[in-house]
Amino acid sequence: MGKSEKTGSNHGIKAKTVVILAACTLVAGMVFGGLGMLIYKELSVQSADKLDDGEIYDFQKAGYITLGEYKGLTADVQPMDEDVYSGMISAAEETEMENDDVVTDGDLVNIDFTGSLNGEELEDASEEDAYVWIGKGEYVPDFEKGIVGIKKGEEKTIDCKFPADYDDDSLAGKTVQFTIKVHEKFSDKTAQKASEGKCNTVQEYFEYEKALQLEENRDSKGELVWDELREGVKVKSVPEKMLASASEDVTKMYTNFAELSGMDVNELLQSFGMDEDGLEEIANETVIDIMIAKTIASKEGITMDDEYYKNALTEMLGEEESDESEEESREAGEDTPRTLEEMEEEYKESMGSRPRDEMLIERVKDFVGEHAKEGTAEELADDEDELTFE
């Protein structure tokens, strides 16, 4: 809690048999037509489970899925304040500012807080990893003022009196004790250092970070609308071998991640609020994404050349792209850039057995993004309202 009110067809076929020959012709057509469909389905299942990594295939034509709209979708590209705040705090962590630990008015802080009333903890008035911009008025005045003076890394308990007209009657006019721990802060000095002098204040850096995220969102419209696209797809069936392979990949990936985190798989899943059924759901969604991507690529003639594939794989592995060739790197005495084969091997070892399929999904997302419209959350909500009423 803690926030002020400002916070945020069935087709019936009628046939009349006039002569026996006409009836026989109709029955024969149905039998052989049905047999043809069975043969086609069997062949389609076989070929769907034997696709090469990155090979395009029309799963809609094969009867697995029915695509919905994938062109002209609307993407909300406007960054949310919380995302901008997160980006600012990440920049603050990288600057490692010295002698700027005490929170002052106007700072943006990242905190945990726990509220209690008459010694009883208030679950709805407690939060972890919250962002508070002191003086902005997004939270109750006493709460914001109470954060001022706390040092980064310290914990302090403050009294906060809620306004008499506060929208939660259980807190209106009450004095709540908040235990607050400050993890990180972003000040005017941070803004100057993080922007290398381009910004002088927290507000200026906020606008700067928001513009950066807006540009990133515009480059990622396909990602932003992918869930909406998936919701419009009717899935009739999923190839069994593809699903089994995806299940192995997902289990392997989470196992590797668990080992790196010093946990077993069950502990890791619990930390994400998941169980083993969650892995199967992820595997199923992975196969659906592959089917969607391959089908759209097939219908639209989308290709993925080696340069795109390598760049996408490099980004997925979290590496920096290099414009230098292996020969140029050797001449400069630098480490030779890893080959595509080496990167594929790493991907297969830690993330999945079909890297080209995964990068094809990214390529198709780019295509979908290129054909998407820009909008805001308010405009999207208005569109939903318009669809609700006739």
Explained architecture:
The structure is a single chain. With about 400 residues, the chain is of the alpha+beta class. It has 14 helices and eight strands. Strands 4-3-6-5 form a four-stranded antiparallel sheet. A hairpin with a 2-residue loop joins β3 (about 110-115) and β4. α6 crosses α13 (about 355-370). It is elongated. Residues about 5-45, about 320-325 and about 385-390 have low confidence and may be disordered.
How many strands, what sense, and barrel or not for the largest sheet? Answer: 4 strands, antiparallel
Low-confidence runs: 4-43, 322-326, 383-390
Distance N terminus to C terminus? 38 Å
| Widest beta sheet: strand line-up | 4-3-6-5
Computed over alpha carbons, the radius of gyration is 28 Å
In what range is the share of β-strand residues? 5-15%
Short description:
The protein has 14 helices and eight strands.
Task: Please tag this protein with its features.
390 residues, alpha+beta, 4-stranded antiparallel beta sheet, two-stranded antiparallel sheet, 14 helices, 8 strands
Question: Which SSEs are present, and which pair or pack?
Answer:
Layout: H1 20-48, E1 65-66, E2 74-76, H2 81-95, E3 108-117, E4 120-133, H3 141-147, E5 155-161, E6 175-186, H4 188-194, H5 202-219, H6 221-231, E7 234-235, H7 240-260, H8 265-271, H9 276-300, H10 306-316, H11 326-331, H12 340-350, H13 355-370, E8 373-375, H14 377-388
Parallel strand pairs: 2-8
Antiparallel strand pairs: 1-7, 3-4, 3-6, 5-6
